[in-house]
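BACKBONE STRUCTURE TOKENS:
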Amino acid sequence: MDIRQLEALVGIADHGSFSQAAAALDTVQSNISHRVSRLESELATELIDRSSGALTESGQLVVARGRRVLSEVAAIASDVSAL
């Protein structure tokens, strides 16, 4: 699992689609799709219902924890800049 995978999933949750997440993260839709697919493989679960585009129960859990992880990563950069 890596930060870009979490950013992609949170981006989909925030922006409502793979393509809008890609635009927000300044990448292409195929990168977002690949990152989410890799994360699903690593976790051995479906995170997004491809037919509806909605987060699964697992996806909701990963997004909630992913937001905290991404917030902590941002805090590290902020803390170091403040030194």
Residues 57-82 form the longest helix (26 residues). The CA atoms of residues 21 and 27 lie 8 Å apart.
